TrEMBL record:
<feature type="site" description="Important for activity">
    <location>
        <position position="101"/>
    </location>
</feature>
<dbReference type="InterPro" id="IPR015895">
    <property type="entry name" value="4pyrrol_synth_GluRdtase_N"/>
</dbReference>
<keyword id="KW-0627">Porphyrin biosynthesis</keyword>
<feature type="binding site">
    <location>
        <begin position="116"/>
        <end position="118"/>
    </location>
    <ligand>
        <name>substrate</name>
    </ligand>
</feature>
<comment type="pathway">
    <text>Porphyrin-containing compound metabolism; protoporphyrin-IX biosynthesis; 5-aminolevulinate from L-glutamyl-tRNA(Glu): step 1/2.</text>
</comment>
<feature type="binding site">
    <location>
        <position position="122"/>
    </location>
    <ligand>
        <name>substrate</name>
    </ligand>
</feature>
<dbReference type="InterPro" id="IPR036343">
    <property type="entry name" value="GluRdtase_N_sf"/>
</dbReference>
<dbReference type="InterPro" id="IPR036291">
    <property type="entry name" value="NAD(P)-bd_dom_sf"/>
</dbReference>
<comment type="similarity">
    <text>Belongs to the glutamyl-tRNA reductase family.</text>
</comment>
<feature type="binding site">
    <location>
        <begin position="191"/>
        <end position="196"/>
    </location>
    <ligand>
        <name>NADP(+)</name>
    </ligand>
</feature>
<feature type="domain" description="Glutamyl-tRNA reductase N-terminal">
    <location>
        <begin position="9"/>
        <end position="158"/>
    </location>
</feature>
<dbReference type="InterPro" id="IPR006151">
    <property type="entry name" value="Shikm_DH/Glu-tRNA_Rdtase"/>
</dbReference>
<feature type="domain" description="Quinate/shikimate 5-dehydrogenase/glutamyl-tRNA reductase">
    <location>
        <begin position="174"/>
        <end position="303"/>
    </location>
</feature>
<feature type="domain" description="Tetrapyrrole biosynthesis glutamyl-tRNA reductase dimerisation">
    <location>
        <begin position="320"/>
        <end position="415"/>
    </location>
</feature>
<dbReference type="InterPro" id="IPR015896">
    <property type="entry name" value="4pyrrol_synth_GluRdtase_dimer"/>
</dbReference>
<comment type="subunit">
    <text>Homodimer.</text>
</comment>
<dbReference type="Pfam" id="PF01488">
    <property type="entry name" value="Shikimate_DH"/>
</dbReference>
Amino acid sequence: MQIKFRALSLSHKTAPVQIREIIALSDQEIERILIKLKEFFSLNDVLILSTCNRTEVYYSHDLDLSTEIIKLVGLEKGLHDIVNYLEYFQIYNDDRVAISHLFRVSMGLEAQVVGDIQISNQVKRAYQASADLEMAGPFLHRLMHTVFFTNKRIVQETSFREGAASLSYAAIELIESLTSNTYQPRILLIGVGEIGEDVAKNMVYLPNAQVKVTNRTLAKAEEIAGPLGFEVVPFENCVDAMKDADVIVCSIMKNEPFITKELIKKFEIPSYKLLIDLSVPRSIETSVEDVPGVILYNVDNIRSKTSEALEKRLASIPLVEEIIGESIEEFYNWKKEMMVSPTINKLKQTLEQIRLEELSRYMKNADEKEFAVIDKITKSMMQKILKVPVVQLRAACKRDQAEEMIEIISDLFNLDRENIKK
């Protein structure tokens, strides 16, 4: 029986953020679960992907292990009531559906922001984690490299990844473009609510920037900034931090503007100061642009760019799906070949064993020259005998009848006998 590729998924489509936060796995937790899956179930092809929007496990096995895997996740997270979370998981036990889901996730078709560029990097890291633990066999290696090649095609052949379709990433692109001539631009992020947190995480795409984070709740600022390696500024020191910053990103919730023209006028601005207001209602007075050197962008300015990018991405989806379909078909052709390879190898071993036994029986007294001639003749005969069943096996793959043909050839040549020499 063919081992099936399977998947289980908890995502923004099946679970609210409160549940996703509970189930989300750290790199260390993923590593421990991978090791347990290897020890308990002898799994060799496993991929665990965990982001803010999804926690998914992909694996190859002839049995559905989804409940056992979810229990392992619960054990790792210290959740004694993990059975209560089963309803949030989607289970993919159909081989082709699971593979298709992995492609769609990896390309960004299933992301909250369609075409999200971050997901492809997250999938690469998940694959690397499996490879490091030797939990990626030939099947997963081939599958992942097909995924990466497909992603490359989509970037080169479509508009699916052009422009920034999320507000937070658009803000990062804006900062990058406007500070391109500034050495190590100093950035201050004020407020780490939902938008601010997303912006902070995207700041990793500005590796040369010096980022500081401030928030009314210091603990929340430390929680977000710490893992990212950013400096935390106590909220009471916010104004001093604003004076030093080249870029101020504000996503604080306030009924009245937090940053006013009068405040900005007090600052010395030697070249420029970029202000980005991601708050609704707005937290920066629009009149700050009257101050020489000040550049202001708000949600509407940035969102117009994201809307245009999103329209392009949505228009590209049919072509993206066509490319994915081609890649899956190509992968399946390889997968079918892999299915018959063990039978072909067994057949070769069986015929070679017969050939060697007969040579040993009848060529005991032959000289070296005679033996070489007969050896060559019998090898040629074996190759010709092999040709027909091998061609038939590969043809059966294309007709999806490989299992039946494998059974026929195994019975015909007695391939399951235990005395076949390795």
